[in-house]
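Review this fold:
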Amino acid sequence: MQKANIGISDKNRQAIADQLSKILADEFLLYSKTLNAHWNIEGPDFHAVHVYLETLYNQQQEIVDTVAERIRAVGHYVPAQLEKYLELTHLSEKSTDKNDSQTLFAGLLEDHESIIIYLRENIKPLADKLKAEGISDYITGLMEYHEKTAWMLRAHLS
Protein backbone atom coordinates (compact mmCIF):
# COMPACT_ATOMS: atom_id res chain seq x y z
CA MET A 1 0.00 0.00 0.00
CA GLN A 2 1.30 3.43 -0.88
CA LYS A 3 2.00 5.66 2.12
CA ALA A 4 -0.75 8.18 2.93
CA ASN A 5 0.53 11.74 2.50
CA ILE A 6 -2.18 13.67 4.38
CA GLY A 7 -0.22 16.08 6.55
CA ILE A 8 -0.11 13.78 9.58
CA SER A 9 3.13 12.14 10.69
CA ASP A 10 3.59 8.37 10.46
CA LYS A 11 3.67 8.14 14.25
CA ASN A 12 0.41 10.08 14.59
CA ARG A 13 -1.26 8.11 11.81
CA GLN A 14 -0.39 4.91 13.69
CA ALA A 15 -1.83 6.33 16.93
CA ILE A 16 -4.97 7.41 15.07
CA ALA A 17 -5.38 3.95 13.51
CA ASP A 18 -4.93 2.39 16.96
CA GLN A 19 -7.67 4.60 18.46
CA LEU A 20 -9.98 4.00 15.52
CA SER A 21 -9.40 0.25 15.84
CA LYS A 22 -10.62 0.37 19.44
CA ILE A 23 -13.66 2.36 18.34
CA LEU A 24 -14.26 -0.14 15.54
CA ALA A 25 -14.13 -3.03 18.02
CA ASP A 26 -16.67 -1.28 20.28
CA GLU A 27 -18.96 -0.48 17.36
CA PHE A 28 -18.73 -4.01 15.97
CA LEU A 29 -19.54 -5.58 19.32
CA LEU A 30 -22.48 -3.18 19.74
CA TYR A 31 -23.63 -4.15 16.24
CA SER A 32 -23.53 -7.83 17.23
CA LYS A 33 -25.39 -7.19 20.49
CA THR A 34 -28.04 -5.17 18.67
CA LEU A 35 -28.53 -8.02 16.19
CA ASN A 36 -28.87 -10.42 19.10
CA ALA A 37 -31.56 -8.22 20.65
CA HIS A 38 -33.37 -7.95 17.29
CA TRP A 39 -33.34 -11.69 16.75
CA ASN A 40 -34.34 -12.67 20.28
CA ILE A 41 -36.76 -9.97 21.47
CA GLU A 42 -39.95 -11.28 23.07
CA GLY A 43 -42.92 -9.71 24.78
CA PRO A 44 -46.04 -7.66 24.19
CA ASP A 45 -44.06 -4.89 22.45
CA PHE A 46 -42.29 -7.37 20.16
CA HIS A 47 -43.20 -5.89 16.80
CA ALA A 48 -42.40 -2.25 17.54
CA VAL A 49 -39.14 -3.14 19.31
CA HIS A 50 -38.15 -5.63 16.59
CA VAL A 51 -38.59 -2.91 13.94
CA TYR A 52 -36.70 -0.31 16.04
CA LEU A 53 -33.82 -2.72 16.63
CA GLU A 54 -33.60 -3.34 12.87
CA THR A 55 -33.14 0.40 12.40
CA LEU A 56 -30.44 0.42 15.07
CA TYR A 57 -28.47 -2.50 13.67
CA ASN A 58 -28.58 -1.03 10.16
CA GLN A 59 -27.20 2.23 11.56
CA GLN A 60 -24.53 0.28 13.46
CA GLN A 61 -23.53 -1.56 10.30
CA GLU A 62 -23.01 1.79 8.55
CA ILE A 63 -20.94 3.06 11.50
CA VAL A 64 -18.74 -0.06 11.45
CA ASP A 65 -18.10 0.47 7.75
CA THR A 66 -17.26 4.17 8.06
CA VAL A 67 -14.89 3.64 11.01
CA ALA A 68 -13.10 0.93 9.03
CA GLU A 69 -12.83 3.28 6.05
CA ARG A 70 -11.30 5.96 8.31
CA ILE A 71 -8.60 3.49 9.33
CA ARG A 72 -7.83 2.82 5.66
CA ALA A 73 -7.85 6.56 4.89
CA VAL A 74 -4.98 7.13 7.33
CA GLY A 75 -3.01 4.41 5.59
CA HIS A 76 -3.50 1.35 7.80
CA TYR A 77 -5.19 -2.00 7.48
CA VAL A 78 -8.38 -2.71 9.41
CA PRO A 79 -8.45 -5.36 12.13
CA ALA A 80 -11.24 -7.69 11.06
CA GLN A 81 -10.95 -10.71 13.31
CA LEU A 82 -13.44 -11.31 16.11
CA GLU A 83 -10.60 -12.33 18.39
CA LYS A 84 -8.91 -8.96 17.79
CA TYR A 85 -12.17 -7.07 18.45
CA LEU A 86 -12.56 -8.84 21.78
CA GLU A 87 -9.01 -7.75 22.72
CA LEU A 88 -9.64 -4.13 21.72
CA THR A 89 -13.20 -3.47 22.87
CA HIS A 90 -14.20 -1.63 26.04
CA LEU A 91 -17.53 -3.44 26.08
CA SER A 92 -18.28 -6.81 27.60
CA GLU A 93 -20.60 -9.63 26.75
CA LYS A 94 -23.17 -10.27 29.45
CA SER A 95 -25.59 -13.11 28.96
CA THR A 96 -29.10 -12.70 30.22
CA ASP A 97 -31.94 -15.15 30.59
CA LYS A 98 -34.50 -12.50 29.64
CA ASN A 99 -35.31 -11.29 26.15
CA ASP A 100 -37.81 -8.55 26.99
CA SER A 101 -37.30 -4.99 25.78
CA GLN A 102 -36.50 -3.63 29.26
CA THR A 103 -33.63 -6.06 29.78
CA LEU A 104 -32.25 -5.82 26.25
CA PHE A 105 -32.54 -2.03 26.09
CA ALA A 106 -30.83 -1.66 29.48
CA GLY A 107 -27.85 -3.62 28.16
CA LEU A 108 -27.71 -1.63 24.93
CA LEU A 109 -28.00 1.63 26.86
CA GLU A 110 -25.03 0.69 29.03
CA ASP A 111 -22.98 0.02 25.88
CA HIS A 112 -23.99 3.25 24.15
CA GLU A 113 -23.09 5.23 27.27
CA SER A 114 -19.73 3.46 27.54
CA ILE A 115 -18.98 4.33 23.91
CA ILE A 116 -20.04 7.96 24.50
CA ILE A 117 -17.58 8.29 27.38
CA TYR A 118 -14.73 6.74 25.37
CA LEU A 119 -15.41 8.92 22.33
CA ARG A 120 -15.69 12.08 24.46
CA GLU A 121 -12.30 11.33 26.04
CA ASN A 122 -10.66 11.03 22.61
CA ILE A 123 -12.09 13.99 20.69
CA LYS A 124 -9.61 16.65 21.88
CA PRO A 125 -6.51 14.40 21.86
CA LEU A 126 -7.24 13.40 18.26
CA ALA A 127 -7.44 17.04 17.20
CA ASP A 128 -4.85 18.64 19.48
CA LYS A 129 -2.21 15.99 20.02
CA LEU A 130 -2.48 13.94 16.81
CA LYS A 131 -3.45 16.78 14.42
CA ALA A 132 -6.45 14.80 13.12
CA GLU A 133 -9.12 17.50 13.14
CA GLY A 134 -11.29 15.74 10.53
CA ILE A 135 -11.31 12.50 12.47
CA SER A 136 -12.01 14.43 15.65
CA ASP A 137 -15.04 15.98 13.94
CA TYR A 138 -16.15 12.54 12.76
CA ILE A 139 -15.82 11.18 16.31
CA THR A 140 -17.86 14.12 17.61
CA GLY A 141 -20.66 13.24 15.17
CA LEU A 142 -20.45 9.61 16.19
CA MET A 143 -20.72 10.60 19.85
CA GLU A 144 -23.81 12.70 19.05
CA TYR A 145 -25.43 9.68 17.36
CA HIS A 146 -24.79 7.55 20.44
CA GLU A 147 -26.12 10.31 22.72
CA LYS A 148 -29.38 10.43 20.77
CA THR A 149 -29.72 6.65 20.75
CA ALA A 150 -28.97 6.49 24.49
CA TRP A 151 -31.65 9.11 25.12
CA MET A 152 -34.21 7.05 23.18
CA LEU A 153 -33.28 3.84 24.99
CA ARG A 154 -33.44 5.69 28.33
CA ALA A 155 -36.91 7.03 27.44
CA HIS A 156 -38.12 3.49 26.78
CA LEU A 157 -36.80 2.37 30.16
CA SER A 158 -38.53 5.21 32.09
Q: What stands out?
A: The chain has five helices and no strands. Residues 2 and 89 are 29 Å apart (CA to CA). The chain has one domain: 10-89+97-157. The first helix runs from residue 10 to 40.
